Amino acid sequence: MGEGSVRPTVSGSQANQQSSPSNAAETPPKVERPGNSDYADWAHYPCSADNWTLPMLETVLIVLAVALIATLLLAMRKPDTFRVARTARINALPEKIFPLINDLRAMNTWNTFSLRDPTSVTSYGGPASGTGALHSFNGPKSGGGTIEITDADAPSRVTMRLQMTRPINADNTVTFTLARAGTATDVTWAMDGRSPLLMKVMTLFFNHDAMMHAAFDEGLANLKALVEQA
Fold first, then answer.
1. Whether the bond into 29 is cis, omega within 30 of 0
2. What distance in Å separates the CA atoms of residue 211 and residue 84, rounded to the nearest whole number?
3. pLDDT per residue over 58-70, tens digit each?
4. CA-CA distance, 56 to 158, in Å (whole number)?
5. How far is the CA of 186 from the CAs of 78, 82, 91, 156, 222, in angstroms?
6. What are the Cα distances from residue 162, in Å, to 43, 44, 82, 114?
7. Distance linking the first and last C-alpha atoms of the chain
């Protein structure tokens, strides 16, 4: 253009329209990224292993405490005494059977608990048979303790005192009763005693009566075989 030419005037709005395209896309939102202070906060987020350890430990201890209390409460509701007894009929008169019970050495030839623990360390004291006869034992299966004949009424009854020192302390009464039935004899092996708290707790996890019944049945079967085969 020459010096005398007139330059067209452009308004501010027109200038803005010319400086930016009319069909330009919208600007996407700005993504905020955490600064250093945010990362510091994340380092102490509650899901970290260190922060979970204490609550988990507290939960485990609470569960164990509740289980222990529940176990003790259940055990305390069990009877303070127990009695187990089994009977077998033996084809022989009481006079033939009685000596095999009244003599502790003879008794241990058929007694389940002695036969199950052949490595048990045993000893005998007092008279050979009858009141005062004593047998002590200490073995991995039979435990430790003594059994003493406290009363003998031939040929119908023998009463013994069983004192256990292992695996638990116990003081029980064992009674053998021989009742004539014609030419046979009904022999009853019974045991009575108190149930300490530890024993009550143990019986929550195994059937004490069933275990004793099985042992008594086995012993009476041994006695029956010994007598009837003689």
1. no
2. 10
3. 788 888 887 777 7
4. 59
5. 31, 22, 9, 10, 14
6. 66, 64, 14, 14
7. 149
How far apart CA 224 and CA 217 sit, in angstroms, is: 10
Q: Of 138, 202, 186, nearest to 164 (Cα)?
A: 138
Q: From CA 46, how far away is CA 69, in angstroms rounded?
A: 32
Size (the chain), residues: 230
Tokens of 162: 């069983």
Cis peptide before 34 (omega within 30 of 0): no
Element counts in the chain: helices (H) and strands (E): 9, 7
| Tokens read off for 140 | 């991995």
Q: Which residue(s) pair with 149 in the sheet?
A: 160
Q: Give the angle 8-11-17 at the CA atoms, nearest 5°.
A: 110
pLDDT in tens, 92-150: 999 999 999 999 999 999 999 999 999 999 999 999 999 999 999 999 999 999 999 99
CA distances, 217 to each of 188, 189, 207 (Å): 10, 9, 16
| 83 membership: H or E segment, kind and range | strand 81-90
Q: What are the structure tokens assigned to 45, written together?
A: 């987020």
Q: Per-residue pLDDT for 165 more than 90?
A: yes
